[in-house]
Amino acid sequence: MKILTSTQIKECANQSIQSEITTSLELMESSALACFEWLKSRYSNEHNYYIFCGKGNNGGDGLALARLLYNENFNVEAFIIQSSADFSEDTQINFDKFPKSVYFIEGDDFEVTEEKAIIIDALFGTGLNKKLKGEAEKIVSKLNEINAIKISIDIPSGLFADSLPEENQIVFRADETLTFEFYKRSFLHLEAAQYAGKIHVLDIGLDKNLIENEKTDNYLIEYSHFEKNYKRRNPFSNKGNFGKAIIIGGSYGKIGSITLSTLSALRVGTGLVFTGAPEYGSLVLQTIAPEAMFFSCGDKYIEDIQIPFENYTIGIGPGLGTEATTKMAFEKMLENENNPMVLDADALNIISENKDLLNLIPKYSIITPHPKEFERLFGKTNSTLEQCELARKKAKEYEIVIVIKGHNTAILLPEGTCYYNATGNAGMAKGGSGDVLTGIITGLLAQGYDSKLATILGVYIHGKAGDYAYEKFSQESMTAQGIIQCLSDVFLELNK
Ligand SMILES: NC(=O)C1=CN([C@@H]2O[C@H](COP(=O)(O)OP(=O)(O)OC[C@H]3O[C@@H](n4cnc5c(N)ncnc54)[C@H](O)[C@@H]3O)[C@@H](O)[C@H]2O)[C@@H](O)CC1
Ligand SMILES: Nc1ncnc2c1ncn2[C@@H]1O[C@H](COP(=O)(O)OP(=O)(O)O)[C@@H](O)[C@H]1O
Ligand SMILES: [K+]
């Protein structure tokens, strides 16, 4: 899914209107209708709906929604922010059409009975031009204190689509946001996402051809991406058709991480998986992952990396350690390899201590830092959006794929595009989840997916398996091994 800026979204709406595909009033009605249908499918008319509206078009959506709810006998009260601004043209029409009287409010002079209350935030949408202050700030502050179900229309009031809020900025805190046609980019960054709650993208009937023509460098990964690019297994194939993944890592006390990566590479369909680890780990690896082959790279730590065959894809880093001999072995390996590989964890920590090594990373390799590892590699930034933009620059500069892991993992490609992921959950915020991702991406790369696809599909599958593990085991009880187990659910779904 494309992620467009608020200006582009407005442009799409304007063009739909100019080409007489729709009128602005019809767009408002269809937005309100989409919200109404969504609400109706989830909440009964036992609730009391308190709809807070501004005088712009976001408020118009709110007033049209209030009318639709009222006409179907829902309990609705509409509140309108008292301000010197006039209603926008369409909002005035919807204000006139609302059959009930409304409350004009200033500051905190309004009451909401908390029991069974649903607060709908239609104060400001994408037309907000600066931070909330004065009366608007007071209203939102009070709404944030009320104990009720809170739903924002299009975007939480006080938030911008294309930039992030500062600390202490007043923003409506929604449980759910009903956003129109596109994810706003800010929803994919922690600092803003905390205000938006669960995001639901509603179709309001904007012309899909116009959307198709809009240019962007930011996308959200969707299931269709996976469906379209997934390579089905030919019935006549043999193990030689599905690549050789070489997983390298592990050290004394950290054999578990390389075992997880090995199991993950096996579970995404790789033809042959080899694990290069210290001798110390061979028994564990051969017992837990008997399908993989083992080659020794040292005693307790990795000291020398000699890969005993050709045509392979390396994934290196989990549990690798940063012993002096390991660093040397790693550097030597980087000097000798030319094919794209996956670099994670300690492989990145070693590079952080010697930035010249960045230049040795083979083109189109994939690095998978979490935000702290990214910071150690490329420096501090003031926000996750700035970090993402720095990653875009670095991905271009070194011609590598950078995966910044987190709730909404961001993938930055050498050509300058960013793909965000929305699968996964907080049950994955545990040691070992990242090792699974390394194994998945290495396995896909080994099977002949190019670096871009291996990463996009890998990150998506990893989160999706995490979501299945959540259903099966709960967020608390799921483990990295549970994620690996649930990879089969993802592939079964795909093969249905
Ligand atoms: N473009 C689209 O595709 C569509 C947009 N719609 C709705 O329209 C919204 C955008 O509407 P508008 O552009 O009218 O803008 P908004 O309704 O977001 O806000 C504009 C109003 O807020 C006031 N305002 C702006 N910044 C303020 C601030 N910091 N403090 C106090 N007042 C402030 C302005 O004076 C104006 O009255 C969207 O978020 C969406 O809800 C939908 O109705 C239909 C389709
Ligand atoms: N709250 C969350 N929501 C979604 N995914 C998450 C969340 N927390 C962690 N993850 C995912 O789990 C993985 C954690 O990786 P990482 O931080 O390297 O952990 P480790 O090194 O312990 O395995 C990443 O892929 C990340 O995207
Ligand atoms: K809003």
Report on this model:
The chain has two domains: 6-216, Rossmann fold (3-Layer(aba) Sandwich), CATH 3.40.50; 223-494, 3-Layer(aba) Sandwich (UDP-N-acetylmuramoyl-L-alanine:D-glutamate ligase). The protein is elongated. A hairpin with a 5-residue loop joins β16 (410-412) and β17 (418-420). The model has no long low-confidence stretch (mean pLDDT 96). With 496 residues, the chain is an alpha/beta fold. The longest helix is centred in the last third of the chain and has 23 residues, at 451-473. 41% of the residues lie in helices and 15% in strands. The strands form two sheets. It has a ten-stranded mixed sheet with strand order 8-17-16-15-14-13-12-9-10-11. It contains 17 helices and 17 strands. It binds ligand NAX, adenosine-5'-diphosphate (ADP) and potassium ion. Residues 58, 121-125, 152-157 line the site of potassium ion (K).
Topology:
Layout: H1 6-18, H2 24-42, E1 48-53, H3 57-71, E2 75-81, H4 89-97, E3 103-105, E4 117-122, H5 134-145, E5 149-153, E6 176-180, H6 190-196, E7 198-202, H7 208-213, E8 218-220, H8 223-229, E9 244-248, H9 255-267, E10 272-277, H10 282-288, E11 293-296, E12 313-316, H11 324-336, E13 342-343, H12 345-353, E14 366-367, H13 371-378, H14 384-398, E15 401-404, E16 410-412, E17 418-420, H15 433-446, H16 451-473, H17 480-494
The structure holds ligand NAX, adenosine-5'-diphosphate and potassium ion (K).
Protein name: Bifunctional NAD(P)H-hydrate repair enzyme
Subunit structure: Homotetramer.
Pfam family, one: Carb_kinase
